[in-house]
Design goal:
The chain is mostly helical. It contains 6 helices and 2 strands, in the order H-E-E-H-H-H-H-H. The protein has a single domain, classed as Cytochrome Bc1 Complex, Chain D, domain 2 (Orthogonal Bundle). The two termini are about 20 Å apart.
Length: about 160
């Protein structure tokens, strides 16, 4: 793993315990490349996402997005358990479009038990769920995700 990403992750995980989700919106933060980022999460979108998450996702990913404690190790079936979505897992490594596709199509055969939600949740509902769990990410994690998102779009 790139030393810079590893350092960012270590810092983010250390700060995760200090940062409450409600404090993660409506302010500017600086990314690691120095770009300014206005962190804003639409409260209605976040509330909708939380409701949908609680109804459809919490059973596997945990009430607060904490995931399975053994998410990095294959289970007895050879599958990876549900990862955390609260900023302590790997979701922040992926562009928003990848997250959306994972929810729509589910996990790859043989890798996990994530069901496909295509046809069960609308794209707007999926966007709201992503907005909810991203609103819970500590600032350093969100900043790292933002930079990854920009790179995936060819903007950095």
């Amino acid at each position: 793993m790139n030393k810079r990403i590893f350092t960012i992750l270590v810092l983010a995980l250390g700060l995760a315990a200090c940062d409450s989700p409600s404090s993660n919106a409506g302010r500017a933060l600086e990314t690691f490349s120095g770009a300014a980022l206005e962190r804003a999460h639409d409260p209605q979108q976040v509330a909708l996402g939380e409701s949908i998450y609680r109804r459809h996702c919490a059973r596997c990913h945990g009430r607060h997005g904490e995931g399975d404690p053994n998410w990095r190790s294959r289970d007895a079936d050879g599958m990876f358990p549900p990862p955390p979505l609260n900023g302590t897992g790997h979701a922040w490594h992926h562009p928003r479009q990848w997250l959306k596709q994972m929810i729509l199509d589910g996990s790859e055969p043989g890798r996990g038990k994530m069901p496909a939600w295509r046809g069960k949740l609308s794209e707007a509902e999926i966007e709201a769920v992503i907005e909810w769990f991203q609103s819970r990410w500590p600032d350093p994690v969100y900043a790292a995700w933002y930079e990854n998102q920009q790179r995936s779009r060819g903007l950095r």
